[in-house]
Design brief:
5 strands; 3 helices; alpha+beta; 5-stranded antiparallel β-sheet
Length: 159
């Protein structure tokens, strides 16, 4: 009697294990791409908030810190020469800002100032601290139930 020869082909279990390993690698690569794109979008929104804050602050500084400064009329597409930004009128002390280049992104800008620059309790004549707070929800959504982030930029100006 001759000994039996075993076929050297792959078994079903070996094939299933190799498919499982390939599937795990593919899912990992897909998750990497998803989180990379998601974090890139969040970085764009965060950078946009900084740009909006600096744009409004520079406009306010250009008006020498005038307390009647209104970015909705002083900074806009006609002033900037682009149609990608819209600054709405004030609502409860906040200016809504919309950037439309690429994905629509919504920001909310609040202007504050301080006359007591050195913190001694008295107003300092001729110097004013200007602060611009830019808030966004989620990844630039209008949904204010999402977590919010706020970026603050400030500078001093002679009045």
């Amino acid at each position: 009697m001759k000994p039996q020869k075993f076929n050297r082909a792959l078994t079903l279990i070996e094939i299933m294990i190799s498919l499982l390993i390939v599937a795990i690698a593919i899912v990992g690569a897909m998750m990497y791409r998803y989180y990379s794109a998601s974090n890139a979008r969040l970085a764009d929104v965060h950078a946009g908030a900084g740009k909006v804050g600096l744009l409004v602050l520079e406009g306010w500084k250009g008006k020498a810190g005038d307390l009647s400064y209104d970015p909705s009329s002083d900074v806009g597409p006609e002033v900037l020469g682009c149609d990608d930004i819209t600054i709405g009128g004030i609502d409860n002390g906040v200016y809504p800002v919309q950037l439309t280049g690429g994905v629509k992104t919504y920001y909310y800008v609040r202007l504050t100032y301080d006359e007591d620059v050195d913190g001694d309790g008295s107003d300092d004549p001729g110097i004013r601290k200007l602060m611009v707070e830019v808030t966004y929800y989620g990844r630039g959504s209008q949904n204010n139930t999402l977590p919010s982030k706020t970026i603050k930029v400030g500078d001093f100006v002679r009045t």
